[in-house]
Structures are given as structure tokens and as C-alpha cells.
Write a structure and sequence with these properties.
Elements (H helix, E strand, L loop, with lengths): L5 H17 L7 H9 L7 H9 L7 H10 L16 H8 L5 H17 L4 H13 L3 H19 L11 E3 L3 H9 L4 E8 L3 E6 L8 E6 L8
Parallel strand pairs: 1-4
Antiparallel strand pairs: 2-3, 3-4
Length: 225
């Protein structure tokens, strides 16, 4: 199944050349995040925010997504590696060159179930959106596109990825590749560990003359919490 993040690319690429000039990033502060998501009854109580996310609530703000995404590492269900593998039926479908309507309907069902337990699987969310479009569920696809865009924007807001001073902060290694793809780059085939904190991923030649992007993976850097 062919996948793309064209919608997100159209939104973010015009800003990519300018964001470094603004130098106004929302780096995760886990002490503040923990305080915000731990108070029962608060609008930012994590279970309440997660319930709204699972319902594809389009009124969730960028701050809500910041608390949801980075606050996820503080939750007992958090898996640093993300979903180690997709259900076999979904994996098999994604390997097929040609898919029919019933296949897309199965993808919708399987993706929905997976996201209910692993809400930040960016690649699956992208696939889910396309499957909804192709099965005629335009309303749900629209809500999911907002969810996808907010999630990418949350990571995008944490830095510009252009230096060790301004890395992107992600909660799984897979999200490094997801961000490269969402920004319209192609992975250059080399990942380097820098100063035991940063991952530097090379990208293929591009119009921005960017050699690669820096990431901090909070699942590796436990001291960030």
C-alpha cells in the first residue's frame, strides 16, 4: 500500500525555512508535564485528554497535544519501541501491491483497534486516513487528518532538527523516520549517535541543502523525565 504525508508536507514545508529564524521552541519539560497531567479532575488530566484523543476530538489544542504526546512516556502503558509489530492481518495487507474495497475496510478496522492501544503510531494513522478516504468515510478521514497534523506539529514545535541545540524531541525511534518522511525528505541511510544523547539521521540531497536532522529520543534519555 502506497503511503504519503502530502497534506502535512504542504502545511509544514513553507514554514520549515522560517522556523529556525523564530527560534521559539516548545521543548518538553517533564516536571511541568507531570504536574499538568496528574491532577484528577483537571481538564489536562491525562486519562481525560487521552479519551478526547481516542474520540478524535478536533478541539484539542496544540498544548493538549504537547501534554498528550510527551506525557505518554509517563504512563504505564508506554512502550519505548512503540508497537513492536502490527497485527499479522494488517502487516500482510500492507505488503500487497493491489488492494480492494474489502481490504481497505479491514485496514480501517485494524488501524482503529491498534490506535486505541497505541495512540501515537504515526505511520498507521497515515494509512488509516487513506483507507477511510478510499472507503468513503470522509468525515472520519477529516478528523484523523487534523489529529495527524497536530501530532506532527507537536514534534515540529519542539525544535527544527538542524543542530544539537535545536533537535526534534520524539518518544520513539520510529518517529524519527516519520518526521523525515512528513517533512518531505528521504532517509540517507545513516544514523549516528552523537554525545550519547542525540541521534543524527542523514537525509538525501534536497532543495534546502540540509545534510541531516538531529533528534532526542526521550525513550533513550530517561534523565529527561
Amino acid at each position: 500500500m502506497k503511503k504519503s504525508a502530502a497534506i502535512i508536507l504542504l502545511i509544514l514545508m513553507p514554514a520549515f525555512a522560517l522556523i529556525a529564524q523564530k527560534n521559539s521552541f516548545n521543548v518538553p519539560d517533564y516536571k511541568k508535564i507531570s504536574k499538568a497531567v496528574s491532577k484528577a479532575g483537571s481538564p489536562t488530566y491525562y486519562p481525560a485528554l487521552l479519551n478526547r484523543l481516542n474520540q478524535n476530538d478536533t478541539s484539542l489544542s496544540l498544548r493538549d497535544y504537547h501534554l498528550l504526546y510527551y506525557g505518554y512516556v509517563l504512563q504505564p502503558e508506554y512502550k519505548p519501541a512503540g508497537s513492536s509489530e502490527y497485527p499479522k492481518i494488517l502487516s500482510d495487507l500492507l505488503k500487497k501491491e493491489m488492494l480492494g474495497k474489502s481490504d481497505y475496510e479491514t485496514i480501517v478496522s485494524q488501524a482503529s483497534a491498534l490506535l486505541s492501544t497505541s495512540p501515537f503510531e504515526i505511520e498507521i494513522l497515515d494509512i488509516y486516513i487513506q483507507a477511510c478516504r478510499l472507503t468513503g468515510n470522509q468525515e472520519l478521514a477529516g478528523k484523523l487528518e487534523i489529529r495527524f497534523g497536530r501530532l506532527i506539529e507537536t514534534i515540529f514545535s519542539s525544535g527544527d532538527g538542524l543542530s544539537k541545540q535545536t533537535p526534534f524531541y520524539v518518544i520513539t525511534v520510529q518517529h524519527q523516520m516519520d518526521m523525515i518522511r512528513a517533512l518531505g525528505f528521504s532517509y540517507g541511510g545513516q544514523r549516528m549517535r552523537v554525545e550519547k544523547k542525540f541521534d543524527f539521521l542523514k537525509v538525501q540531497k534536497n532543495d534546502f541543502d540540509i545534510e541531516g536532522l538531529y533528534f532526542v529520543n526521550t525513550s533513550v534519555n530517561k534523565s529527561l523525565k
